[in-house]
Amino acid sequence: QVQLVESGGGPVQAGGSLRLACVTDERTFNKHSMGWFRQAPGKEREFVATISWLDTIIYYADSVKGRFTISRDNAKNTMYLQMDRLEPDDTAVYYCGVARWSYRDVGTKPEDFGSWGQGTQVTVSS
Fold first, then answer.
1. What 3-state DSSP class applies to 92?
2. Residue range 115-120: mean pLDDT, rounded
3. Which whole-number Å values give the CA distances from 21 to 5, 42, 43, 72, 126, in the listed order?
4. CA nearest to 22, candidates 61, 64, 72, 56
5. Does residue 82 register a pLDDT over 90?
6. pLDDT band at 123 (very low <50, low <70, confident <90, very high)
7. Three-class DSSP category at 88
8. Where are the beta strands (DSSP E) in the chain?
9. Are 63 and 88 a contacting pair, CB within 8 Å?
C-alpha cells in the first residue's frame, strides 16, 4: 500500500507564503504522476495542481495559477507545493495524491488518483 506523508501546513496571514511537502517511497515516486487537491468545510475535494511522472506536464487550477508552484525533487522522493500570496479562500485541508496508473500522465480529476495522504490544514486569515 502506498504511503504519503504531507507536511508544511499551518496558519498564515493573507499575502503570506507556505510550502507543502509530500514524501513517498522511491518506487512509487519514480513511476507515478502526482498532485495536490484541497477540501474546504462543506465542499467537495477540488483540484489544485498536478505534475506528470516525468515532470513534463503541469496543470494548475485557475484560482491558484500564478500564485502556486508545484514541483518534484527526485533525490528526496518529495513533491512540493509552494504557495505565495495566499488568500482566505485558500483555507482548506490540502491532500497529496498519487495517480492510479504508473508511467502515465494525469489530468485534474480526483478519481484518477488512487492513494492519498492524511491531509495538512492550511488556514489563511484576513
1. strand
2. 96
3. 8, 25, 23, 9, 24
4. 72
5. yes
6. very high
7. helix
8. 5-7, 10-13, 18-23, 34-39, 46-51, 58-60, 68-73, 78-83, 92-99, 113-116, 120-125
9. no
Query: CB count, 10 Å around CB of 57?
Result: 13
Give the residue carrying C-alpha cell 501546513: 9
Does the pLDDT value for residue 107 go beyond 90? no
Residue 106: predicted pLDDT: 86
42 neighbors 58 (Cβ within 8 angstroms): no
From CA 100, how far away is CA 19, in angstroms rounded? 25
Distance CA 59, CA 103 (A): 17
Helices (H), 25-86: 26-31
Question: Residues 94, 22: contact at Cβ < 8 Å?
Answer: no
Taking only the tens place, the pLDDT of each residue in 28-49 is 999 999 999 999 999 999 999 9
